[in-house]
Task: structure prediction
Amino acid sequence: MIAFRTDDREVHPPHRWPDYRSTRLRAPSLPRVPWIHSPTESTGPNFASHAPATREADLTARHSGAPLGERILVTGRLCDEDGRPLGGQLVEIWQANAAGRYAHRSDQHAAPLDPNFDGVGRCLTDADGRYRFVTIKPGAYPWQNHANAWRPAHIHFSVFGPAFATRLVTQMYFPGDPLLELDPIFRSVPEPARERLVARFDLAETRADWALGYRFDVVLRGRDATPRGL
Amino acid sequence: MKSRVTPAQTIGPFFHGALCRAGGERLAAAGSAGALEIGGRVLDGAGAPVDDALLELWQTDGRESAFGRAATDGQGEYRFVARKLAAAPLADGRRQAPHIDVSLFARGLLHRLVTRIYFPDEPEANARDPLLASIPDADVRARLIARLEASGRLRFDVVLQGERETPFLDV
Result:
């Protein structure tokens, strides 16, 4: 049985972060119950034999026309802390369109929907842990957290890794965005770890006359060398 | 090569189209032998329903395993169909009561919450389960055990904050 390291408080945001208003009534107030990893937490769902169709990794080619906006490639590597590539892993993403509007019934932002964009993508990582999506750059959008609040452009990422313990949902941001330093969700991450959420512009991934390339690596908890007792 | 772990961020309110699929709530085929309905509500610290949460259930007995995923509805209600599997023992040989691991995501949760659903018809196994035994307060401990409703459904409410707060695990 492989054991995994515990959650790192220096990396992840705290549950309670009053600047992000929705945490106030949703953050638990009791301390978390310490727990070792039993076989339930050291194992997890395996999606390797349920590969999404290739077209699910191209968010620009699933409708009758091309979506509006700046076409981009988002690629990177999924690995653990020790650099071990995590292949055959499901990566799920979702995002707003170029105008900053989600194709979701709850999104009330007065920006146009794009009939050629639903903002949803899925793929499996290859044997080296690499994933690649073709999409458009999402727009920033206003939200009701505080006066004149705007979310920086971002793409939501969901990954599992090898075990229930390694599950991660996060957001990828774009370099140079002036909204980052104003965003309570981004700023909830301990300062030294924030930059890990910002993709890098990557000329090597950029395709001439076609699309800018961004690189976003996702690193999950590594294995624990010493099994823990309770 | 040492890499640094990627921080978590909230799932936000707009995940449904990407993450929810028909049948995602089934860890077992409805009507199959041993299939149980498990459901309940997710409530915030003011007792209001959390209508934009995503729950993921995972269970394994060491051979068989099952995963399910479903969102709460407008009333904060969720619903799964699952079976009770015997739980695999800990590495040191201690036995665990049958249970289902739960990940909970929502707008306002910057990082997932983890809890466990135990079964009400396993009083002896629950009494010697190492996780349940590690929670000293019997009233708090009982919040991890689903209740059997008259309909036969198992009910497991998740209270994010407050007096009836669900115990969340540090995994």
In short: Residues 39-42 of chain A form the longest helix (4 residues).
